[in-house]
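Late entry, evening session. Most of the bench is empty. Finally got around to the prediction I had been postponing all week. Sequence below, unchanged from the version circulated by S.P.
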Amino acid sequence: MRGHVAALASPHPIGAALPAIYLDDPFAQALCEGVDEVLAPVLVTLDSLFAYFDPATSPDDMLGWLAGWLGLVIDDNQTPENRRDLVRTGIELVRWRGTERGVREAVRAAFGRDPQLVESGGAAWSANPGAPLPGNAEPRLVVRLPVSDPESFDLRRLDEVVEAVKPAHLLHRVEVFAG
């Protein structure tokens, strides 16, 4: 329920549904009007529930809740339109979660800039038996993001976005640089 709305009329007044003997009873009608005032916001919310699930019409304070359903990270530093765009593209982001494309698009959607991704690779082999394997055996991901002011940038927010969309087994590190 969104809260009390002054002078909101109930779309289904209870007093009109009472048996005929109570229709002219002032006490019964006053009691029903009090209940109608409490139930009116609930009924109006249920009548327009579909609008709460659409990023285009959802109230601004509901966008974080919608994003949470998709596992996306939204903060108050983003404009409402940026939050709406992130939720709108969230379904596509969920489809690519755990992939390079998913990490790249999630960071782009959250920060409006293309990140640089450096992966350690998924496999190691050697043409010479018994030789040490090239590369790093431990899988890692480094996400580097160009920003206008690296000193004031919130690295924690970038880390949360990457943590939400990267493969669960993969260790990661985030970096920002002037660009």
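Two things to note before I forget:
Residues 15-47 form one domain.
The chain has eight helices and three strands.
Will write this up properly tomorrow.
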